[in-house]
Amino acid sequence: MTRHWTPLAVVYLVVAVAGLVGTWTYNAIAIAERNDFIGDLVTSGPAVSSITTDLLVVAVAGSVLIVVESRRIGMRFAWAYIVGSALTAFAFTFPLWLAMRERRLAALRAEGSGVDE
């Protein structure tokens, strides 16, 4: 179970869990209060719109990175991280992908395949 779990992969995994817990705490509150989540994001003023745009651009760029880098190093199911971000949060799936990427790179190093890092 600990095979190829580098310290950096563990750090990314901890960040992924923090992203999941942090975002879903607020999602649960919104669901319990029967809030219009999408409406709140777009009608709560310029500050919320700014952070929403900021995070959306980062998520798009991160999704491109997930696809390109996964193909480069031979990771399968890159699409699952992107779809998963719509079901959970990009704050969870991106660090999770980083952790899995680190594991893949460690495995490639152990195999001596010579993939550029």
- Bin the helical content: over 70%
Q: What structural class do the secondary elements suggest?
A: mainly alpha
The N- to C-terminal Cα distance equals 24 Å
Count of strand segments: 0
Task: Write structural notes for this entry.
The structure is a single chain. The protein has helices at residues 7-32, 37-43, 46-73, 78-87, 90-111. It has 117 residues and is mainly α. The chain is elongated, with a radius of gyration of 17 Å. The mean pLDDT is 86.
List keywords for this structure.
79% helix; mainly alpha; elongated; 117 residues; 0% strand
Briefly characterize the structure.
The protein has 117 residues and is mostly helical. Helix content is 79%, strand content 0%.
Topology:
Elements: H1 7-32, H2 37-43, H3 46-73, H4 78-87, H5 90-111
Helix pairs in contact: 1-5, 3-4, 3-5, 4-5
